[in-house]
Design brief:
5-stranded mixed beta sheet, 11 helices, 5-stranded antiparallel beta sheet, alpha+beta
Length: 457
């Protein structure tokens, strides 16, 4: 069942239940009101027979020895309201006289009332095709009088009322179902369009499908979120495709060099030892570069470095260890100026990013020029002594595989700075580049610092 059908059905059920409650309440109240009015008219007629000495009843019913039965009955008919029928019962429950064309039924309770001359009862009876409302009252010293009124017309009115109420309930439920369906159709139209768009994406794989215009309600928010998700997926897919294309291009050069050197060794087995050693050294260097390139590609393609949990990191101490390791590995002069700084992050990711900045600075600083590293609260700055970064290149140096004109003659894959940028963003920070007034480029890795009070706690 569709959402529209469920909403329409729910509204029909709710409206129907409400209409049924109102109809039942109306019918019961009307029935009680009409019955009360009939009973009041019967009680009003019955009071005339409840005189203490029983004279009125004796005259009417012929219980007085001087009055024959039915002698006064025709004369008294006109004294009562139209539709009233009177029937007298003797002390033994026998019929004495009456004004109607039918005999009113006498039950056991009527007989007990007649025997004692005390009490009353009101009930509805059916005599032939007539429905009567009958009240039996005792008269003194004994006997009883039954006063009846036609109840058929009242029942017909109530039956007609029942039909009208049933019709109203059905019409109200139908109208509510129709209104619910129309409202649901209008309310769910954005959801239907969004569902169609999602199904098109699932069936075709296209991410440029039309998404319904967003409003301020929940479907509008969902449409905006879905549109944002499609845009992010499209961007991610484009980046992956670009990464694959760039990676294929970058891998082609070292693989071609490797293949050339291997073919040279295979074709010329009698190469001089010095030439062979040179080719083997080239193979080893190219293999290392190729391995590093593959590692960097994997890191960038997965958008994560490892599953290392975040923790409090002393940025100054971490940078000190990286600088000491870089000094041992490269033999270069690397100066470090630091002040205490604590951040929250993944130590290995941060170490890789800082190491990339130092390696990049060392690559563009010709020996024996030094590399300057400065750690300040929430940032690490690395300065080289190279030619700097051209203004037109500063907006692209952190792109994957981007290499400026000056960098093309240097070794590297063009991924190191991209990894630094990704690490900075993953930690809620940023990386930037500028040129130092005294020459060289300055790369700054800025990260959110943890307040000192938090660290102490």
């Amino acid at each position: 069942m569709t959402l529209r059908a469920r909403i329409a059905l729910a509204m029909a059920v709710l409206t129907g239940a409400t209409a049924i409650f109102v109809a039942v309440t109306t019918y019961v109240a009307t029935d009680q009101r009409v019955r009360s009015e009939v009973d009041q008219s019967l009680e009003s007629a019955a009071r005339r027979f409840q005189d203490p000495d029983g004279r009125q009843a004796a005259i009417l019913c012929g219980t007085n020895p001087t009055t024959r039965p039915r002698t006064r009955m025709p004369e008294l008919i006109n004294e009562y309201a139209d539709g009233i029928q009177i029937q007298c019962i003797g002390p033994k429950g026998e019929f004495l006289s009456g004004t109607g064309s039918v005999l009113l039924p006498i039950n056991d309770r009527d007989k007990r009332i007649a025997a004692s001359g005390i009490g009353s009862q009101t009930r509805t009876v059916r005599v032939g095709d007539k429905v009567l409302r009958v009240e039996t009252v005792g008269i003194q010293p004994n006997g009883a009088v039954q006063i009846a009124r036609d109840y058929g017309e009242t029942n017909r009115v109530l039956a007609s009322l029942r039909l009208w109420l049933v019709a109203i309930v059905v019409l109200a439920a139908a109208a509510s179902a129709l209104a619910g369906w129309l409202i649901a159709r209008r309310a769910t139209k954005p959801l239907v369009q969004l569902t169609d768009a999602a199904e098109e994406v699932a069936n075709t794989g296209r991410l440029d499908v039309d998404v319904p215009s967003a409003g301020n309600d929940e479907p509008g928010r969902l449409a905006r979120a879905f549109s944002t998700m499609l845009a992010a997926l499209g961007q991610s897919r484009d980046q992956q495709q670009q990464l694959v294309q760039d990676a294929g291009h970058e891998l082609r050069t070292p693989l071609t060099s490797l293949r050339t050197n291997v073919e040279t060794l295979q074709r010329y087995p009698d190469l001089p030892e010095e030439t062979r050693r040179t080719i083997l050294d080239d193979l080893e260097s190219e293999t290392r570069e190729l391995g590093a390139l593959v590692d960097e590609l994997v890191q960038l393609a997965t958008d994560t470095f490892d599953d290392e949990p975040e923790e409090l990191v002393a940025l100054d101490q971490l940078t000190l260890r990286i600088v000491e390791r870089a000094r041992r590995r490269t033999g270069r002069d690397i100066t470090l100026t630091s002040s205490p700084s604590t951040i929250e992050g993944r130590p290995r990711d941060l170490a890789r990013a800082i190491s990339n900045l130092i390696d990049n600075a060392a690559k563009f600083s010709e020996p024996p020029s030094a590399v300057d590293v400065v750690v300040s609260p929430g940032s690490v700055s690395v300065r080289d002594r190279g030619p700097g970064v051209a203004v037109e290149d500063q907006g692209h140096v952190f792109d994957r595989f981007y290499r400026s004109a000056l960098a093309r003659s240097k070794p590297g894959s063009g991924l190191g700075l991209a990894i630094v940028d990704q690490t900075a963003k993953a930690h809620g920070g940023a990386v930037s580049v500028s040129n130092h007034p005294d020459g060289g480029a300055v790369f700054t890795l800025a990260l959110p610092e943890v307040p000192t009070q938090t660290v102490a706690d």
